[in-house]
Design a protein that fits this description.
alpha+beta, three-stranded antiparallel beta sheet, about 55% helix, globular
């Protein structure tokens, strides 16, 4: 488990914000460690949204922000109805971040 030099509360909030940005924008550029950390979170959320019942919507609302949960439930889940898994793709970008040389990646929906 990656901790990103944060305590539990800030780390949970950090993951929620990253997942929100990914869901709302469709793709984000981030570090490899962050992308690998939020990929299972978002993929499990899509699988939950595909169940298409009230309980899954309420669970999404408790785990994500309201806007991202609604977009996931009403727009993205029907798109991936026939797909079993592998909703996200991580592609490495040439170059590194200047200040700390962290490898950058692009995470996006397939």
């Amino acid at each position: 488990m990656r901790k990103f030099h944060k305590k539990k509360g800030p780390r949970k909030s950090f993951k929620r914000i990253l997942a929100h940005n990914l869901i709302m924008k469709g793709r984000i550029e981030t570090t490899e460690a962050k992308a690998k950390d939020i990929k299972p979170v978002v993929e499990k959320a899509i699988t939950l949204a595909k169940k298409n019942n009230l309980a899954s919507l309420r669970l999404l609302l408790s785990r994500l922000t309201k806007d991202s949960a609604n977009k996931l439930y009403y727009e993205l889940a029907p798109k991936y109805k026939d797909r079993n898994s592998g909703y996200l793709r991580i592609m490495k970008i040439s170059g590194q971040r200047k200040r700390d040389a962290a490898s950058m990646v692009l995470i996006e929906f397939v």
